[in-house]
Amino acid sequence: ASGKIGATIGSYAFSELKNKHEISAIFWSVVGTMLLATFLTLVAIPFYNGHTIDLADSLAREGRVREAVKMLYSGPATEEGKDTTDDDLLNEEGDTSDETATDEDSQPESAVPVV
Fold first, then answer.
1. Side-chain half-sphere of 12: how many Cα atoms within 13 Å?
2. What letter does residue 91 receive in the DSSP assignment?
3. pLDDT digits over 95-104, tens only?
């Protein structure tokens, strides 16, 4: 919904600027929006590779979601590099135990069943 509101406001504003022959203002507003979006993307989106995603997915399937998020934000992983028991994967309390399962058949609610 917010995208539609932004599009409506932008369309109105660009129409008004066009009618006032302020084409350069339209150009610079688009450039500013693009630069802001680029900055936010670089800051907010983690830099990872396929191996990092695989490791994070494994952690999430085990119910270790907090550690999976830390894995994503730790940067690209190498095959022999970061593994799921590294110190940087410790949760905030420093506990590495798997708290979600008490026996082999139980799964956390967020786990996707393997077929």
1. 6
2. -
3. 444 444 444 4
